[in-house]
Design goal:
Strand order of the largest sheet: 1-2-3-5-4
Largest sheet: 5 strands, antiparallel
Helix content: 25-40%
Strand content: 15-25%
Length: about 150
């Protein structure tokens, strides 16, 4: 496995793909052996999320294709889904995925209006015609809600 690309390498590629400068790259996750996520900004695109994943893992492009096919379906139902801006390869065997950053902050408790809001999100996913397949959405949603993954 190749070393995780630096933010400056990733920023240059994303800027070229978006056709505009990219700045303010701040880590959203700690560096892992196989992936990394940054929050950044581009003048025209606004707040963005830049994700990289080791393509040796074999699933990076599959996950991107899954998102490209299913996020618009969820968005059409009113689910807050990011728009995919670009994706491709960076460095030696790393897949990059760029999307708009959704507003919000990590959830710290399930009191007040939060349980009802969470149930509305679950209902928007229900009957969307998207098979879960091998993805663990319960675990993923917990990471998004409590650990600021998105």
């Amino acid at each position: 496995m190749a070393d995780v690309p630096t933010w400056s390498e990733v920023r240059r590629l994303v800027a070229r793909e978006l056709g505009e400068p990219v700045s303010d790259g701040e880590p959203l996750t700690s560096v892992r052996r196989s992936r990394m996520t940054w929050a950044a900004r581009a003048p025209g695109a606004g707040p963005i999320v830049v994700k990289i994943r080791d393509s040796d893992e074999g699933r990076a492009q599959d996950k991107t294709r899954w998102c490209a096919a299913h996020l618009p379906v969820l968005a059409a139902r009113g689910y807050p889904a990011p728009t995919i801006l670009c994706q491709g390869m960076v460095g030696d065997g790393w897949h990059v995925f760029v999307q708009h950053r959704l507003p919000g902050r990590p959830l710290t408790s399930l009191d007040g209006p939060m349980p009802a809001a969470l149930l509305r999100l679950v209902e928007l996913q229900a009957d969307a015609g998207i098979a879960a397949g091998e993805r663990d959405f319960a675990g993923y949603l917990a990471n998004v809600l409590f650990d600021d993954w998105e």
